[in-house]
Design goal:
Layout lengths: L1 H27 L7 H17 L4 H24 L5 H20 L3 E3 L6 H12 L2 H10 L10 H22 L1 H11 L1 H6 L4 H27 L1 E3 L6 H16 L4 H23 L9 H53 L1
Antiparallel strand pairs: 1-2
Helix pairs in contact: 1-7, 1-10, 1-11, 1-12, 2-3, 2-4, 2-10, 3-4, 3-10, 7-8, 7-12, 8-10, 11-12, 11-13, 12-13
């Protein structure tokens, strides 16, 4: 069980980068960007084909980010310059990327098992330093009979994800970042200040899909393959991570919200892992589990708010009733004294 949860935390941290990208488009720009399903695979495809062709895994990952950025920019151009509905622009780009991804890979699946990736290099370096022996006793305290292969991915990816989170927070506080946030809140108002909202939307979607492609490139290297179908339903997973994180950790500030999104991505993976261990559920039920998790994350906070509001009204009614009763008793006392 502990090893399964450990694996879900590993993948959850990597998927958190994709969730951050979805947060930028869905919450900051208020743009329902379905390009994510395609740009996630684009990142995986570009990274995989680059590694197979002899590029360094780091350079291959950088290529993936650029490809994802360009895909997002095209969606933005379709919407802003082509005047296409945001939802339709995302769907059109997602469909186009399916064929483009097949062209990039040359076939539906590219294995990376015999290639050197970021994670194979990282794991080898980590194990040569003997750092795992320092962390493994933590799991033995919890009674784990099996120990993880390495702690390298969890530790390093957590640092990388937090670093990107802090960079995102910083960017959203810059002049351009504030303009992108204002564009998402009220496009007409920010346009009245002579800001070029078209450019801001294109840039925002480019950054969003760059993060999604980065996550796709890392997942391909983590899983050891890139598949043309690996992006199906990715937008739902991203939205689930955002909604769960916001519901559990709050959205008072940008920094808190981006941290909540990362937490939501990890919790989503853990919940899916635990759900799949139930005897009556199978791997094919994953989409159903995702839908149930999203519904629960959407409905539960509203039910809790309604319950709190009901209690508040009841308490206020009781206080008013007691006050009226007290006033009545005082008036009764005065009448008796007068008579």
């Amino acid at each position: 069980m502990l090893i399964s949860i450990f694996g879900s935390i590993e993948s959850g941290i990597i998927y958190a980068l994709m969730a951050l990208g979805v947060y930028l488009s869905f919450r900051i720009l208020d743009f329902p960007d379905l390009t994510v399903d395609g740009s996630f695979v684009t990142g995986a495809a570009v990274a995989a084909i680059s590694i197979i062709n002899g590029f360094s895994p780091l350079v291959a990952t950088l290529f993936a980010v650029i490809a994802g950025f360009l895909a997002g920019c095209v969606t933005g151009i379709l919407h802003t310059k082509g005047k296409i509905n945001p939802l339709l622009a995302g769907i059109l780009m997602m469909i186009a990327l399916y064929s483009i991804n097949l062209r990039i890979m040359g076939r539906p699946n590219l294995p990376l098992l015999n290639e050197e990736t970021l994670f194979t290099k990282l794991t080898a370096t980590w194990q040569s330093l003997g750092i795992d022996s320092l962390f493994n006793p933590i799991l033995t305290i919890f009674g784990a009979s099996q120990l993880p292969r390495t702690w390298a991915i969890v530790c390093v990816m957590l640092i990388v994800t937090l670093l990107i989170k802090f960079l995102t927070d910083y960017f959203l506080k810059t002049e351009i970042g504030l303009a992108i946030r204002a564009t998402g809140d009220n496009k007409r108002m920010i346009r009245s200040f002579a800001a070029n909202t078209d450019w801001l939307i294109i840039l925002g979607l480019g950054i969003s899909n760059g993060l999604v492609a980065l996550s796709g490139a890392l997942i391909a290297q983590y899983g050891g393959f890139a598949d043309v179908g690996m992006g199906i339903g990715m937008i739902i997973i991203g939205l689930a991570s955002v909604i769960i994180g916001e519901a559990l950790f709050g959205t008072k500030t940008i920094a808190r919200t981006t941290l909540a999104v990362i937490g939501g991505a990890i919790i989503y993976r853990i919940v899916v892992t635990l759900a799949l261990r139930a005897d009556f559920l199978e791997t094919g039920d994953m989409k159903l589990i995702t839908a149930v998790i999203v519904i629960a994350a959407l409905v539960t906070p509203k039910l809790l708010d309604a319950q709190r509001e009901k209690k508040r009204r009841l308490r206020k009614r009781q206080e008013l009733s007691e006050k009226l009763k007290l006033d009545h008793q005082q008036k009764g006392g005065k009448s008796s004294a007068t008579s």
